[in-house]
Amino acid sequence: MISEGSSFIKGMLLGGLFCAVVTLLGNFSTGHQSTTDHHHHHIQVPSKEELLKLPEPKRIELSQSIRVYCAILVQPRELSYWAAVKETWSKHCDKAEFYSPENVKVFHSVNLDTKDKWLMLRNALKHAYANGKGYSWYFVALPSTFAIIENLKFFLLNKDPGQPFYIGHTVKSGELEYAELEGGLVLSVEALRRLVGVFSDSVKCPEQGSVLWKLTEEKELAVCLKYTGVFAENAEDSEGKEIFNTKSVNTLIKEALAEKPQEVVNGCCSDVAITFHGQSPNHMQVLMYGVYRLRPYGHTFHDSLVFLPPVDSDND
């Protein structure tokens, strides 16, 4: 009886110790021990009044200084999406690079030689930083996302890439806030510099993530950035509407019809939306037509600046 009781007590002690270790590792692995007190930010687009206060030469200088490197994460089975992105919005990036888990003969891409999504994202960002010198912003997207790069540049106009920005459509998981990859996300060159630096720290930012559970690649990214003092920030227009959309245009319109049938347009989408996710290849072509090609004759939009396409670009 004594030995049985002793074994029971030992089991209880070992079980309690194991739970304590799991709890400690869990807190450590999600990066919640950061000493920086950070409050969630909502970043808005610059106002027209703010831009008009600037002299025209300054506005031109600003519009030419924003250079966006687009990193598009693709899969071999997504060739139709890949082709659609290549033929549509990616032409408006100052540089667009496609990253795939293996060599694909049909289209040029950077072969990351891994199917692990976190390693793909991690290695794509390392490659972008090493080979994308001279760019101030790095935009990461999936091939089922449609992006309006000019609106992204407009949004970034009054933001200093020398400061650590990590922006997109943010959500919260426990104590961790992160930008959803489906809506696309953008990093300033300073944020990416810090991120690449922490990649070498296998404790704060391990290649394989947590040993106890698997986080998504977007959460792994947020954890690593959090260790460098960079936190996810939500992007909105001046009315508080989302501009990095994790849903398609069709879905947003259907939701607006159901919830606000009297004001579908105002209830649906921002006038300066940057992304829409879940678009089929055909829908991307339709969006390209509506965004870039269809124009009412004789109507001017009175924009206070112009974003010119990259040199030798064949974009719309």
SSE blueprint and pairings:
Elements: H1 2-29, E1 42-44, H2 48-52, H3 56-65, E2 68-73, H4 79-87, E3 95-100, E4 110-111, H5 117-131, E5 137-141, E6 145-147, H6 149-156, E7 166-168, E8 170-173, E9 176-179, E10 185-188, H7 189-198, H8 217-227, E11 233-236, H9 249-259, H10 264-268, E12 275-277, H11 281-293
Parallel strand pairs: 1-11, 2-3, 2-5, 3-4, 7-11
Antiparallel strand pairs: 5-10, 6-12, 7-10, 8-9
Helix pairs in contact: 4-11, 5-8
> What fraction of residues sit in β-strands?
5-15%
Across the major sheet, the strand order is 1-11-7-10-5-2-3-4
Please bin the fraction of helical residues.
Answer: 25-40%
Q: Do you know the CATH topology?
A: Spore Coat Polysaccharide Biosynthesis Protein SpsA, Chain A
Instruction: Tell how many strands the DSSP assignment holds.
Output: 12
Main sheet properties: 8 strands, mixed
User: What's the average pLDDT?
Assistant: 82
Order of helices and strands: HEHHEHEEHEEHEEEEHHEHHEH
Give start-end ranges of low-pLDDT stretches.
1-40
Structural class: alpha/beta
Reported CATH architecture: Alpha-Beta Complex
Any idea of the CATH class?
Alpha Beta
Beginning-to-end CA distance, first to last residue: 84 Å
Number of helices: 11
**How many distinct domains?**
1
| Shape designation | globular
Radius of gyration: 23 Å
Organism: Acipenser oxyrinchus oxyrinchus
Protein name: C1GALT1-specific chaperone 1
Membrane topology: Single-pass type II membrane protein
Main location: membrane
